[in-house]
Design a protein that fits this description.
alpha/beta, Lyase, Ornithine Decarboxylase, Chain A, domain 1
Length: 431
Amino acid sequence: MTFTLHVDAERWRAHTAGVRDAVRAAIGSVPGGAASGDEAHHHLALGDLVPVAKGNGYAVGISRCVREAARLGLTRIAVGTVFEAADVLGSYDGDVLVLTPFEPADAAAAEEWSLLAGGPHAARLLRTVGSRSGWDALAAGHGPVRVVLEGLTSMGRFGLRSDDLAGLLSDSSTSSALASGAVVVEGLALHLPISQPSTDHRAVPGARWKDAVVAPAPPAGASARVQEALAWGLGWQALLADLSERLSASGAEDAVTGLTSAASLWVSHLEDVELASLRSALPDIAVYPRIGTRLWLGDRGALRARGTVLAVHDVRKGEASGYRQRRASRDGAVVVVGGGTAHGVAMEAPSAVTSLRQRAVVAGTGVLDAAGRALSPFHLDGAQRWFAEPPHMQVSLVRVPAGVVLPAVGDELDVDVRLTGIHPDRVHGLD
């Protein structure tokens, strides 16, 4: 094939198992080995790693991520969209959480949700709900629908503000939905930013809870992310306690029992030391860290993208080639190599610049682009080579100066690309 991802399976699997064990140790679960029987129940009581399999499947593909999650003994996974859930439910026996919140106004997604709700795997689906409209649509149904409510954290993307969440859980219609079994709540989701929050979220209105909650001092050295997660966790426990009292008073004992699983936090972007800090502050709540990039791509050396050389052409100075007939500035060669825009080559997101040096690099790259020059991600003879012109859909034309030993057709060139954005023709090592 022309654009491939090579995986050192032994090294890669050792890394993923290490991440699983480190997470379990941080949240107080038992590290090592596949979860089964009593051990599986122990993990779920304390929480467990929830691998994320979404988008391009972190270069290896969603289906392989799902298979590897099962190999690791993990009984829950998270996908990005309901459409991805439809693709994996038939090949995975555990629970599948959809990260994008359910929103009835999203007609295409709502239609897919309706199809899955009537299918054979509906009982294993968990919906994220981050709006009152999403909750009301589910509460009005017959269920049962399993949901994880999402709080609007400093990430500022999806979720209910804490005051809105409190209002939702105190609403009589919510009690009715829980009592009837239409909705089963299985925790609170907190999508935290990668950078530490710059605002003290214990003090802003969106993080204040009922006066009865007296927040203890956070653990010594707790990060801003931990402090934010702790504020949400304490408030969540208080809301659940209040809800349980009201359900019990109304005689809905089954619904009270069902709230046991709701004493859970599903968190993103907490490091192991932060998970341990959160666990020490919230010993009575299950913690489910949702991890994708660190799990699948944390050992970058175990994965290598390569493009196959398909043709090599000598060119003279001034000779034109490619769609745009750009002329060579000196003697050399044009190497045609597998890997183009369809594979994700040179398809990059805007740079997240945070320093003067990074700004200078981006500015310099922009000047070169304006002059018609762009470095390709392909490496030959120890150097990154220039594009002859922008990459085509499935191949790229790369200029190589005279004096460099040229590759033969069939050779492979290393490609330095962002693995979360590529679509290789084939993955070697995991099949």
